[in-house]
Structure formats: C-alpha cells, structure tokens
TrEMBL record, chains A, B:
It comes from the Bacteria. Residues 126-251 form the DUF2520 domain. It holds the Pfam family F420_oxidored. Gene3D superfamilies: NAD(P)-binding Rossmann-like Domain, ProC-like, C-terminal domain. SUPFAM superfamilies: 6-phosphogluconate dehydrogenase C-terminal domain-like, NAD(P)-binding Rossmann-fold domains. Residues 2-78 form the Pyrroline-5-carboxylate reductase catalytic N-terminal domain. This is NADP oxidoreductase coenzyme F420-dependent.
Length: 267, 267
C-alpha cells in the first residue's frame, strides 16, 4: 500500500520502518517540524513536508501518529481530503470516532510497545490492536497490520483504553522506577548496569508467576524496620518519599487482598 | 564449607541450593516454622529444626537469612555459640554491625536479586556484595561468594543500604506496577501475557539507554488529555488514582530536570 505519515515521532519511526521493510511504499512524511519530517522521510526514502496544505492525495493509507492534543485538529484538516483512502491513528487512548464526520473509511492500528527512534524492535512480536469503521475497512486495516506483526487482534475503543492504561503501568511507570533507581545509584557513583540482572529477572518472573505472586521485598513482607529506614534515606526529597510510602502501602494492600481471595477460594 | 542456615525463606532456598550445587555441605536448617525448615532441609539433604537450642555447633558458616525484625534476636541467641565460625547475614539494608558483640568473625553476603522458592535463577550472573569484620574474614566470605557467583564485589554497609533502596525501586516497585497492570486487564478478562513483549522491551531498553532517556508515554510527553482521561478511569479507586497522578508528576519532573541538565552541559 502507499502510505502517508502524519507525524514523525518514535512510533511513526519504528512502524514506518517496519512497513517499509514489509514492502509498502511511503509517499510522504508530514510533521509540524521540518527537521523531524526530514529525519523520518530520509529513513523511508520519500519527500518531507511541514506544510499541511502540501500533504499529497492519492495514498492508500494516511497514518496519524501525533500527540493527542493535536490529533483532532490535524484530522479535521487532512482527513476530508483523503477521499476513499484509509485513515488510521495509532493511539491507545483515542477513540476511533475521532475520525467520524471527517473521513469516510477509518480505523485504529495500535501497536502496544515502547518505541524510541534508535532502538530497533522486532515488530513481528508486537501485539497490534485494530479496529475499523466497517468490515471492508477492517479487512484492509488488518492486512496492513499483519504485514508487520504476527499478533494482530481486534479490539474496541473501550477495551483498548483500558489496555493502554495497563501499558502505562507496565511500561512508563516501570521505566520511571528504573529511573529513580538510577538516580539513587548515581549519587554513590554506582553504574546502573549493576541493576540489569535484577531488572531482567523481575521481568522474566512474571512470565511464570502472576505479578502479585512474584512480589518480594520489604513492603510485601511488611518489614517495617527496613521501610522506615529506607524512607529516612529519602528525607531530603519529600516527593520521592511520598512515592515510596504510597507504593509500599499499595503493595501491602494488594498482597492482603490476594491472600484473602486465595483463602476464599480454598474455603 | 559446612553451612548452617538460620532461616528458610526465598533467598535461603535459592542461595542454599546454589551453595549445595557448588559442593558445600549443609549441616542443618533452622526456621521458626518447622514446615519451612523441613522444606529447605529436604532440598539440601540435611536435618531441620525449629528449636533455637538445637542449632548445631561445628559449622564453618552460619548464614542468617530472616526478616529484619527478628534478625537481631536470633543473632544474639545463636551467634555467641558459633565460636570461630563465620557468621553472615544476607540483607541489603542491615548493617554488618548487627553481629558486633555477638560473633567474633562476621560479615555480609548480599545477593542482589528477587528470589522465589520455585523460580530457579542462574546464580553465576547475580551481583553479590560482601563485607567483613576483618581481612581474613573477608577472604573467607569472598571465597564462599565466588563459589556461586562470578560477580562478587566488596561494598560497605552505607553503600549497600543505598543499593538496596535502588533495588526496591527497580524490582519491588516495578513488579507492583506489573501487578496493577494485571489488575486493570483482569477486569476486562484480558490475559496478562499480552503485556510480555512490552515488559520485556521496557527492561531491554535500559540496557542501551539511561532510563530517563528511554521514557515514553503520556506523562513524559505531557499529554494532558490522555492523563486526565486515564485518571478518570481510576475514579472508583482513590489510591490507584493518587498513585497514577504522583507517578505522572514525578516522570514529568524528572524529564524537565534531565532536559535542564543536558542544556547546561551543552552551554
């Protein structure tokens, strides 16, 4: 298919390259900043533009991959000019209906992964959730998704929103915990790579156990001495301290709930 | 070396088995609950006891691996009877000096990993941090540690405490974020394994990028629309909602600080 990209961020870069490798042709990359547009266009071997009025017609698919706050504006300007082409967005949290009244054939193609421009990923393994405005549109969207991923599933706007919330917990919040650990280590000049075996095993474990069963450490043991001392180490940083306390309480609460549920099941 | 275990939890189980495989002999396992003592003793082929007065003498090493709150009591009861044997504990947050006045030769052997009884780990890869009361004691502690791990390092009580705090962030808090994600998915009947590629990539990425650079998602983009909508999905759960808000603010604050630091470096 012939593709026009609206947006040139991390996701557009990785999905754009995956579609390129799968043999699709990119006609153009639009971004509000020319440097971004050119960077992705260079990777995909096509022209770049930062001029909304210069977005070309004649593509089979227009893929909108931009910040939520600007998506609606771009959809209302560009989608009406796309005729019978397929209009897709790639966002977990945005309803498919953002296109309603602007495009004739539209849908969502949400690859659930964390993308950075220079971290190549194996797209085949990435779960891709699709939704479309009509059966023939769905078939086309699914075909496009299947050309890059082996794990394509249909999912409604409502369920996709909850999936995206779960992804924020399992990825963005997780990564932030890594960042806070790096910060703690940095002050002692300890390189972050000392954490890799722990990080990898923590991720590996939840392939074998439900996360609530995999939990270890002071909060789940309710080892108050350790928690109090660790909190004291964060005395100069009230926000981090509050975060530590809130996470510890939440871990303990979930462990108690899990235990109660198991007991009930056994009774 | 001949080993006596004081404690039979997750860490004792995994380290006990690793030492067993490395050819050390376990003389006995003590635990406050006989069932736990017997479970580990069964794995290590030795007697079990829940009677403090029955802890045998004549071992080369006594390894204390128990909850922080009970460690001091056990040390004061058992360590004085160990003569010239090596007394070790395995806790990140507890000072080596917990043994002072109770044991003659003592130290710490802290394997930084998350252990569950039935999740075997490759001990060779696990960073083990050691500390000891005197050079000859250090040599013996290091020798024991090196018999199971290729990544043994000396570390003081003070630095180990900070390391353990970092480990709580990078492991326990991370795992809790997985658990919260599983909870969100569970309500929609979506199996947790859909998250594996995202979880694995999130862990993989911080092998290549500092975590603060690896961050993606609504909070770091400061995509207010998405954050407000995701918060609204947590309306019925004030604690989760507060956690979501606090994590999002913390992500944004760290991103701003990182940007400011980079700018300063470039100026």
């Amino acid at each position: 298919m012939k593709i026009v990209w609206i947006g040139a961020g991390n996701l557009a870069t990785q999905l754009g390259e995956a579609l390129h490798r799968a043999g699709h042709e990119t006609l153009q990359v639009f971004s509000r900043t020319m440097a971004s547009a050119e960077a992705l266009a260079g990777r995909l071997g096509c022209p770049a533009t930062d001029d909304l009025d210069a977005v070309v017609s004649g593509a089979d698919v227009y893929i909108f991959s931009v910040k939520d706050g600007v998506l609606e504006g771009l959809v209302s300007r560009i989608a009406p000019r796309t005729g019978d082409a397929l209009c897709l967005h790639t966002a977990g949290s945005i309803p498919m209906d953002v296109f309603r009244g602007h495009a004739r054939r539209y849908g969502v193609l949400y690859p659930m992964q964390t993308f950075s421009k220079d971290c190549p990923v194996d797209f085949k393994e990435i779960p891709v959730f699709v939704e479309a405005s009509a059966p023939d549109v769905f078939a086309q969207t699914e075909q496009l998704a299947r050309s890059v991923s082996d794990r394509v599933k249909e999912m409604s706007t409502e369920r996709r929103r909850r999936l995206h919330l779960a992804a924020v917990f399992a990825c963005n919040f997780v990564n932030h915990c890594y960042a806070l650990a790096a910060d703690v280590l940095g002050r002692d000049g300890i390189p972050f790579d000392v954490m890799w075996p722990l990080i990898d095993e923590t991720a590996r474990k939840v392939h074998r156990l439900p996360p609530v069963e995999a939990q270890t450490g002071p909060a789940v043991r309710y080892d108050r001495n350790v928690m109090v001392r660790q909190c004291a180490m964060l005395d100069g940083e009230p926000e981090r301290k509050a975060l530590y306390e809130m996470m510890s309480r939440s871990i303990h609460a979930l462990a108690l709930r899990n235990e109660a549920e198991r007991k009930e099941t056994n009774d």
